[in-house]
Amino acid sequence: MKNLLYIYIILLYNPLGAQIPDSTIVDGDTIAVELLKEVTLSPYFSNYEDHKAYYRLRRKVIKVYPYALMAKDQLMEVDEDLVYVETRRKKKKLTKLHEDWLQDQFSKELKKLTRSEGLILMKLIYRETGQTCYSLIKKYRNGWMAFIWQRLAKLYDTNLRAEFHPNTIKEDEWIEKILNDDQRRQKVFK
After folding, report:
1. What pLDDT, in 10s, does the model give residues 143-157?
2. pLDDT over 80 at 21, yes or no
């Protein structure tokens, strides 16, 4: 009975007895205490070959991701410019001007990319813009040019219609993880 009375008094005067303090006092100093989210560590790679492939992919993604961001910015700029152009002929001239500028700026660097880096770039462009390279060529040039470039890409074992699916494709999942880790790392060092 006495124990029951003690429990009743404790509950009466401390209704939130399971509450976690937000600070603690150590040697007269108050130190803030904050609970962190639980982190579960598990091996991400099943073997050494996956580990090696991941870091090889990481190097390639970090190399081509700035080009994907520049492509996204350039496409937004072209779309903004095309809003003010009325005739089809002027739209064609405007897209040709942007294309010439892009070739002057980036053709030397992009020609140095390997096939796998080019495929990663196409996937990243899809990730950033939501459109495949094939559909972009078709939109800004025409269907015939898109067909020709697709045939040329097929000769080199690539595909302009490559999409980015991190939920179903393991390589795309790794790419997404690499980009998230890199963005997190950049936020820490800013």
Report:
1. 898 899 889 988 888
2. no
The pair phi, psi for residue 29, each rounded to 5°, is -100, 140
Strand partners of residue 31? 24
DSSP 8-state symbol, 3 = H
Q: Which residues pair with 25 in a beta bridge?
A: 30
Please tell me the distance from the alpha carbon of residue 25 to that of residue 70, in angstroms, as a whole number. 52
DSSP per residue, 134-180: HHHHHHHT-HHHHHHHHHHHHHTT--TT----TTT-HHHHHHHHHHH
What does the domain layout of the chain look like in residue ranges?
A: 2-32, 48-188
Strands (E), 7-150: 23-26, 29-32
Identify the residue whose tokens are 């937000």: 22
Of the candidates 50, 56, 72, the one whose C-alpha atom is nearest the C-alpha of residue 124 is 72
Structure tokens at 5: 């009375």
For 19-25, which contacts have Cβ atoms below 8 Å and span 24 or more sequence positions? none
